[in-house]
Design a protein that fits this description.
Elements: E1 15-23, E2 30-34, E3 37-41, H1 50-63, E4 70-74, E5 80-86
Parallel strand pairs: 1-3
Antiparallel strand pairs: 1-5, 2-3, 4-5
Length: 87
């Protein structure tokens, strides 16, 4: 008789792609959602990917997921960016 092994890798995961408008070099950090677009202000400058990394961290906290579950999709040099959040 063979035993069946249950695998957690077969559990479907939900993902959402979100549009983000980023304001770097802000005095304070904030997240607002308007008409399906997130407006995010961060203190980090738009240099060396610092602002993008901070946005990723803030989105992870906002959605209650690990930072590695938030993936950058497009808009590296633009204020309008796309991220995927995997839950």
């Amino acid at each position: 008789m063979s035993k069946r092994s249950s695998s957690t890798s077969s559990i479907p995961r939900e993902s959402s792609t979100i549009v983000v408008h980023v304001t770097p070099d802000s005095r304070r950090e904030r997240i607002e959602s308007r008409d399906g677009v997130f407006d995010i202000s961060v203190k980090e400058p738009a240099q060396d990917n610092a602002a993008n990394e901070r946005v990723r961290e803030l989105l992870a906290v906002y959605f209650g997921v690990a930072p590695k579950a938030v993936r950058f999709v497009s808009g590296a040099r633009s204020r309008k960016k796309r991220f995927t959040v995997i839950r």
